[in-house]
Inverse folding.
């Protein structure tokens, strides 16, 4: 991980020395090369320069390796998607924008790879400032300031109990090592301590009832902010939740699972109902994320092999799918200047490939086999039903509603009569097709070989 972090710092330094003529070409090339080289080093355990062999405190395992690769993959893709609305911006603003994204990547790599819970917390909080700048500075509407307030206060208020709990754990056990806790989980009957540790990650995921910051942040953020927020930053909450549940597994299995499980299941169903009422495309995708992440938390809470595998699979599949949906939504917005579903319609009359890509990712979002979301849902739903059969009611409700709003979005945007005052050309360029293709490639890879995510 030191190699990856040093490479990111090198990209940060090179950003300040670029001119306007080759800025985007160099940034995309550097981040793409970083992704390929880092992936080769990470997945090759026999390499002398494997990042896991360079530091005792930064290492990789079967849980964080896929999240690190997903983070490295998303950076060049999000920059590609942002070139359209940033191409005419001043060079200094583009440099700041790119530097913020690289800084987020450094924080993510450190958080996902650390063996110390306190460093995990620091990496968790470090992403707050650059994400806030992306939302408040590059958002499209005045409401972006309010969205930034929601994002900051939800994160800070939920993180303070976690910091207090970590200090308490260190004072009583004299270490905060993830590896040591995996060998010797805490057999502590202090339920309040467990709740204080988990609440920060539950808010960051988020699950229903603590989700109000997410739709506001998604709607007001630029496309890169929405893609990073949906694909990576939400997974920080899931990853932290996995690490903390493995530490407090006795408390969670014996006492908290019977309460968290039905709450998350019905929360996911309620989020799906809210999706049916949305008229804003980005807001609908955000509420869809709340529904999927609620079931992800429900699967992880069970601490079974199927539940953990399903949770990790859901994080990766949802990261790819939601990022692609936000990228396509941005293509629509750049042409129509609106996100209202009833106005942006009849895309299929202007282009052929875009409706096909919409259909693929809509089917992925609703969990149609053999797409990766369906594999994750099979694992998670099977684990939930085996724990308590009554939860099948919320599962069936969510599955039906998710299919309804996913196909409704596809039908509204691609069918119907175009308004006379909205005759927009939907001709897409090579950069936009490349962005969408880079989402299709990992999706097809997971369909062909889902075992690459198995624990």
């Amino acid at each position: 991980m030191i190699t990856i972090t040093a490479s990111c710092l090198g990209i940060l330094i090179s950003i300040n020395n670029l001119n306007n003529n080759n800025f985007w070409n160099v940034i995309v090339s550097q981040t793409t090369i970083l992704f390929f080289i880092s992936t080769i080093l990470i997945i090759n355990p026999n390499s002398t320069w494997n990042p896991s062999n360079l530091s005792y405190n930064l290492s990789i395992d079967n849980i964080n390796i896929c999240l690190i690769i997903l983070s490295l993959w998303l950076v060049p893709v999000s920059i590609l998607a942002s070139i359209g609305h940033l191409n005419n911006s001043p060079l200094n603003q583009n440099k700041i924008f790119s530097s913020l994204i690289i800084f987020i990547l450094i924080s993510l790599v450190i958080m996902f790879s650390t063996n110390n819970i306190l460093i995990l917390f620091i990496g968790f909080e470090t992403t707050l400032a650059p994400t806030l700048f992306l939302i408040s500075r590059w958002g499209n509407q005045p409401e972006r300031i309010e969205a930034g307030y929601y994002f900051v206060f939800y994160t800070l208020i939920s993180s303070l109990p976690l910091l207090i709990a970590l200090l308490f754990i260190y004072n009583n056990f004299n270490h905060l090592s993830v590896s040591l806790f995996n060998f010797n989980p805490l057999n502590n009957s202090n339920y309040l301590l467990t709740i204080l540790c988990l609440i920060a990650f539950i808010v960051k995921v988020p699950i229903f009832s603590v989700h109000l910051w997410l739709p506001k942040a998604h709607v007001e953020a630029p496309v890169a902010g929405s893609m990073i927020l949906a694909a990576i930053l939400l997974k920080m909450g899931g990853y932290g939740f996995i690490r903390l549940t493995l530490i407090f597994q006795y408390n969670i299995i014996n006492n908290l699972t019977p309460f968290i499980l039905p709450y998350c299941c019905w929360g996911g169903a309620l989020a799906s109902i809210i999706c049916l009422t949305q008229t804003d495309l980005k807001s609908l995708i955000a509420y869809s994320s709340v529904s999927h992440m609620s079931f992800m938390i429900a699967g992880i809470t069970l601490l079974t092999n199927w539940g953990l595998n399903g949770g990790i699979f859901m994080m990766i599949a949802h990261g790819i799918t939601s990022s692609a949906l936000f990228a396509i939504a941005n293509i629509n917005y750049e042409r129509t200047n609106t996100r209202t579903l009833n106005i942006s319609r009849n895309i299929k009359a202007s282009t052929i490939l875009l409706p096909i890509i919409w259909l693929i990712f809509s089917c992925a979002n609703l969990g149609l086999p053999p797409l990766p979301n369906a594999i994750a849902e099979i694992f998670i739903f099977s684990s939930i039903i085996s724990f308590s059969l009554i939860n099948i009611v919320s599962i069936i409700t969510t599955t039906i509603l998710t299919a309804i709003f996913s196909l409704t979005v596809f039908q509204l945007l691609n069918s119907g009569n175009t308004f006379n005052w909205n005759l927009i050309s939907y001709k897409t360029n090579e950069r936009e097709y490349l962005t969408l293709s880079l989402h299709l490639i990992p999706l097809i890879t997971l369909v062909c070989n889902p075992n690459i995510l198995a624990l």
